[in-house]
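Long-time lurker, finally posting.

We've been working with Bm11941 (Brugia malayi) and I want a structural starting point before designing mutants. I don't trust myself to interpret raw outputs, so I'm hoping someone here can both generate the structure tokens and explain anything notable. Sequence follows.
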Amino acid sequence: MNLIKTHPNKIYFVISLIIFVALTSPIGGFIGIALEGSELGEQSQNIVTAIASSLANGTFIYITFFEILYAEHGHGERKMEQWLSVAVGFGLIAILMLFAH
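Top reply, 14 upvotes:
Generated this for you. Predicted structure of Bm11941:
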């Protein structure tokens, strides 16, 4: 929605960005599969996996806090409840991640 609002006269630009974003997930999956089947050493695989995970998590956090929550925060209603919900959700996911391994 923000792309259309920001670039109302550049429909092909918006469509190309949507296609690019839609293709990045399968491409990342193929990279992960190739990495698992590669002949890299265990340490090299761990480094590449850590970098890829960091990029994915950073993107997720950026979109959550700066795109979604910032727009919701601008409505001016129940700001404290919104931020409390974010903190509780973040905490629950963090606890689940601790017990995932």
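Before you design anything, note these points.
The helical segments are 2-6, 11-37, 42-73, 79-99.
Residues 15 and 84 are 36 Å apart (CA to CA).
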